[in-house]
Amino acid sequence: MTGVNRRMGWLSWLAGAMVWTGAAAHAQAMPPPKSSASAVAPGQSMLVLDASGSMWGQISGRPKIEIARDAVDRMLASWPQGQQLGLMAYGHRSKGDCADIELLRPPGPVDRPSLMQAVRSLQPKGMTPISASVRLAAEQLKYSERKATVVLVSDGEETCQADPCAVGRQLEQLGVDFTAHVIGFDIAKGSKAEQQLRCLASSTGGRYLDARDAASLNDALRSVSQAQPAPKVNVTDGREWLPDTMLWWEAGTQIEGGAHARESELGVQPLTLKQTARDCQAMCMRHPACGAWVYNPTGSYFIDHPRCDLKGTSGALRAEKTEPGEGWVSGVKPGARIMYQPVPAQ
């Protein structure tokens, strides 16, 4: 079963099985989302393809760029009628050039033959300027004026001295309704690349989907192309102390009476080397809007000090196990209005 199918499966289970906790039933509703469909102009989308040199790597004897071309063709065949789409790529014209980003087709009605002609012309060569590409795509979509969605397919980490996570947060803050869905293609689990791409998606309320082969890449692109408005479901209890565990927003999900998950990031607080996960938990307990917390140990995300990631409420959190001994700890505040999906039993 692909990562996409697993995720859709548990969300379906979650919607049918969630119940209100006693404390949550009396909690105050969160503020409404910062925008609604009626308040913004019709949106456009931009597909951003990684054409860096690593896309010549092979999966089951086929270059990844060939697999990506076929997957894009299938996605275009089922692209929603009336939804405008543009195409951008990076790393396909020169080596070692972080400015090698090209708008291949501006946003407009889907012209499948024209788009595929551009996709088939890509010859992977160079760097991976993820941050600059996503920012440029957002600007082409006029993200500060209307709803804008970027779909990024990447097989590696940022290689141009920028932070995709920070860019995502900035675009989310400045945009009317900006979302980045990210597909990690042949990305190692727990790698810096996965952390960057997950954070880019979650910071904008988008989905991160893992694709390991041709079939799962097809599924991932089809899933984001047919994405529907965030479903609303109820909430359940989480656990207060979760050793060797990270909590991720399951983006695109909203609880009854709550804001979108993208409204719920309270920020990452730096900690001293002497502070521990208990200090992070205490920060969340003191913060009136905090619903969950994640202690990031020294060495995670290549940092030289621990951090405390405070999360608000209204969204779905998914627990993911880390390697024992790394030092990750997470927790959910008692009574918080959060959906929580525990680590599946092995």
Key descriptive features of the protein:
single chain, 346 residues, alpha/beta, Rossmann fold, Hepatocyte Growth Factor, 5-stranded antiparallel beta sheet, 9 helices, 18 strands, disordered N terminus
Description of the structure:
This protein is of the alpha/beta class and 346 residues long. It has two domains: 41-225, Rossmann fold; 230-341, Hepatocyte Growth Factor (3-Layer(bba) Sandwich), CATH 3.50.4.10. Helices cover 28% and strands 26% of the residues. The protein has helices at 3-17, 22-25, 64-77, 112-120, 130-140, 164-174, 192-203, 214-225, 277-286; strands at residues 41-50, 58-59, 62-63, 84-90, 101-108, 146-154, 177-185, 208-211, 232-233, 242-243, 245-249, 254-255, 265-270, 292-296, 307-311, 316-321, 329-332, 339-341. Strand 2 (58-59) and strand 3 form a beta hairpin. It is globular.
